[in-house]
Structure formats: structure tokens, C-alpha cells
Amino acid sequence: MSGTTVLTEKWPVLGRHEQAAVWLQIWTDLGRAPRTIDAYARGLAEYLVMCEREDVDPVAANRAHIAFYVRELTSRPHRRGANVVSIDSGAGLANATIQQRLVPVRLFYDFLMEEGLRESNPVGRGRYTPGRQRGGQQRGLVPRLTKLPWIPSEQQWLGILQVARAESVRNRVMLALAYDSALRREELCSLRTDDLDPAHRTLRVRAETTKNRLERVVPYSASTGVLMSAYLAHRATVSRARGPLFLSESRRNHGQPLTLWTWSKVVRRIALEAGVPRFSTHTTRHLCLTDLARMGWELHAIATFAGHRNTDSTLQYIHLSGRDLADKLARGMEHIHAWRIQMLTSADGTTAEVSR
């Protein structure tokens, strides 16, 4: 059974629109990640359902119909309950979620234009246009809000570690690696035994498991290396076969590769028990990259470590707290203040070298 057939069974509306099914099949044939295809299918299906409900031909839809869909997204109740309200969207769906819903719709209309079925894309996108006022930046259909990534305070992190100490050796080494090597969830769960180099304490993050298909080799600490040795000895009691590094130990899936969802549930349980509900599988990556910035790493070095193709992505991850920035300002102002005072108090009116 093809991937597109599975998706049309999951969202029947896709099967009722020939162009939508063709578009999804093209992305599938191009080798896009299954999770990406699934997200595209869901986003486009929601839009097509709206078109059918409002008796709109999606091929001929105009900007007014897209605006109606955006209004529906911004007023849609949150799936976790009617009392949950997102500040940045004015309703249940966050700004980032709305942006994700619009991406497949925009790409679908790009496809229709390439096929000669439309002359323009009603969704559009923000872009730089020379000659425009305000720096030439043309706003997209929905303003994109960029929020600082959340990272735990020292007390919250200690709470997470305290709870994690009672976890299995597998869960502890996974949490340690997620922080040590700034791994994304999929990168962590996709590690294989032959990706490890214990002699040099490094691991290979294969291109096919990364978000941008960029392979990299990253180190991990000596402490994590000790924990890894303990886990490998334990893993041998579950399975001696080479392959996926982290295995399930449940009765139903004993010895099978650990899934993304299982790891998410583990982290969620730890977060709730520690009283830090905002902690997620991606928090350790934010925290690691922030700590590297605090230690004085250059931006390009952090980008290489994180596996980013450009430093713009890295800047979105690094979050220096107000306290960090205040300390930097205080240190800088202390030097300037000393220099000005010495200049005023110098007997001959000249300045002397002021140590930093």
C-alpha cells in the first residue's frame, strides 16, 4: 500500500481532489520524510474540508477564501480544551501552528501554478522587494511572531535531574546525550550502535535523521561516556544484535527500536513529576546551545555543533537571559566607568592603560 493511499484513507477529502493526491504523491516520490508528508497531508486536508463546506473550488479559490480560512484558524478552539487560550493568536491555535497549516496550502498552489492551472498564488509569502519602504520587507499573509525559546532556570533543571536520577539507565543516558550533543528528538532516537565511537567519545548524526539532511559528528562528555558504558552492558541483556541503539523494554515491543512517541512520553512524565511542565524533548537542545554561548563559543562554532547551515537558525536557538545580558552590560560599563574616572583624576590629564 503506497504512502498516498494510506493518507487518503486517513483523510478521505484528499482522495476527492485529484490534484491534491497528485501533489502529495510527488512529494512522496521526492523522498520527503514521512512526518513531513503527514504534516502536509493534514494541513491540506483541513483546508480542503473548509472549501467543501463553503462550496469553494480549491483550484479557483482567491485571496478572500484564504483570508476566511485564516480567520477560521485564528478562532478555532484549542484541542486541549475550551479554556486554553493562546495569547499570540487570540484563540486556541498559536501563531507557529497557523504558519504550519498555511505552508502546505501555499505549496499546493505553487504546484497548481507550475501545472498551468492558476496564474497566481492566493496565499503568497513575505519577501524582500527592492524599493519598498521600511527596508523593502513585504509582510506575509499572517504576521510571523518570533518568541524567545524557553529554557529552565537552574532550580528547574536541578528538579529535572533529581527526578531523572530514579529513571532507568537507558532514559538517563538518552537525557544526557540529548543535552551533551544538542540532539533533536529524531536524531537521538535514530542513533545506531555503529554511530558511536567510545574511544573518542563522539557520535555520528546521520544525514537522513537530521532536519536539514546535514551529517555531523559531535562529542559527548566523560560522565556521559561512563553512563553509556553501563547502558551498553544493560542493552546486551535485551538484545545483542547490532542496530538501533535504544531499544524498548516493554512486554509488547521488547527489543524493538524505541519510538519517538515513547521517548516523548518519558520526558513528559519526568517534566510533570519535577513540576516543570514546559520541559520537552527539545528543551535540552536549547539549553545546550545557550550554555555554549554563555561559555564564549563563537557563533559559527555553535552553528557547526548544532548542525545548522547558517547562523540565522542558530540565533533563534540561543537564548541569553536578562541576567546574562545584565552581567555583560555591568562588566562593560565597569571598564568604561573606570576609564572615564581615571581620565578625570589623572594629574597630567593623560589616560593610563586600564586593565579589562
UniProtKB/TrEMBL annotation:
InterPro entries in UniProt: CB, DNA_brk_join_enz, Integrase-like_cat_sf, Integrase_catalytic, Integrase_recombinase_N, Tyrosine_recombinase_XerCD
GO terms, molecular function: DNA binding
Domain of life: Bacteria
UniProt keyword annotations, A-Z: DNA recombination, DNA-binding
Domain Core-binding (CB), residue spans: 18-113
GO biological-process terms attached to the record: DNA integration; DNA recombination
Keyword Chaperone assigned: no
Residues of the Tyr recombinase domain: 147-330
Classification via Pfam families: Phage_integrase
Protein name as catalogued: Integrase
Lineage: Bacteria, Bacillati, Actinomycetota, Actinomycetes, Kitasatosporales
